[in-house]
Design brief:
The chain contains eight helices and 13 strands. By secondary structure, the chain is of the alpha/beta class.
């Protein structure tokens, strides 16, 4: 039995047919393993809806493509570590074939690259996603691709409603966003900033109401991109992330500027897990249970999850010291 079991709920209105509703099955709900929180740490949470906006020419679409193609080819976009590839549906309403080829080649991809997990639609002829037909179309495509991530670039070109009318965003959420989320698919929505970037995305403020996370993208010194949250429904997402863009004109890549970030208390939690002899592949739920039995308290879920990740990184010899320092001080806090 899953955490959401389909049950029939009758409607009082005779004009409306009885439809199934998804109600939570509580024993299954509390028994879930919630270890996997990130799709592309620390930028893109798994199974969540994310919006990223910036002024024109900032490179938001380029960063979105990097995230998508790296996930699809089996690499973590920010750390470069190998990981199983996932299916990504990328709906591009702006570029041409020549634009896409140029960008992919700069990222190191070509005819011999396995892009079978990247399902890319250029200038797709689809019904607007703020309509019933559009919602059906995008959800069907995502299901056919088995997409873990859906990218819409850009939002305003995918809908028919006016940008400054709140019903446009509300209708998109009802017909498309909510359905993708209920299917467990992450959504990355690219958008433009208004004249005053500090006031958020261009158009209605309702654009931020239906997403879990909103990133404002800006460019600092030495091509360091700064992602700042203007909305966080997910507490474990950092308020700010810096990404280094390396572009010599021929080759392009991105990496997390400053390396991994770890919440305070992670080192102590790693030591506790080591003392317990917990297997490296133990889930966060298993780790929390073992910590509570031994120490009476497990601490925050975020710290436990980070401690599990650190042990795995250390064991794989990808980094001898995930903190990047031999200091005994704890680490940069979110």
């Amino acid at each position: 039995m899953t955490a959401t079991e389909r049950q029939i709920i009758p409607w009082d209105d005779d004009d409306e047919p009885a439809e199934p509703a998804l109600l939570i099955d509580w024993p299954s709900f509390w028994g879930r393993d919630t270890t996997e929180e990130w799709l592309a740490e620390p930028v893109l949470p798994a199974g969540r809806s994310t919006a990223m906006f910036a002024k024109g020419g900032t490179g938001k679409s380029l960063l979105a493509l990097w995230i998508a193609v790296r996930l699809a080819t089996g690499y973590d976009p920010m750390s470069g570590r190998r990981r199983p590839p996932v299916h990504v549906l990328y709906l591009d309403f702006e570029m041409t074939e020549d634009d896409l080829q140029e960008r992919l080649e700069k990222m190191g991809y070509g005819p011999d690259s396995d892009l079978s997990h990247l399902h890319y639609a250029l200038l797709p002829s689809l019904p607007p996603f703020d309509t019933q037909a559009g919602g059906q179309a995008i959800c069907t495509l995502a299901e056919q691709c088995d997409a873990v991530l859906v990218v819409i670039d850009t939002f305003i070109r995918s809908v028919e409603g006016e940008e400054n009318v709140s019903d446009t965003a509300k209708n998109f959420h009802f017909w498309s966003g909510m359905r993708l989320k209920s299917a467990g698919r992450a959504l990355l929505r690219i958008d433009h900033a208004g004249k005053d970037i500090e006031k958020g995305q261009r158009g209605s403020s309702a654009k931020s109401d239906d997403v879990d996370l909103v990133w404002q993208l800006g460019v600092g010194d030495d091509d360091v991109l700064k992602l700042k949250t203007t909305k966080r429904r997910v507490s474990w997402v950092p308020e700010e992330v810096k990404v280094k863009k390396d572009d010599d004109g021929e080759h392009l890549s991105y990496s997390l500027f400053g390396g991994e970030t770890w919440p305070a208390g992670t080192r102590e939690k790693v030591n506790q897990l080591n003392e317990l002899g917990l297997p490296l592949d133990a889930s966060r739920r298993e780790a929390i249970k073992a910590l509570k039995e031994k120490y009476g308290s497990a601490g925050s879920n975020l710290v436990v999850g980070k401690a599990i990740k650190w042990r795995q990184i250390e064991a794989s010899n990808l980094r001898s010291d995930p903190f990047g320092t031999s200091s005994s001080s704890d680490v940069e806090e979110f």
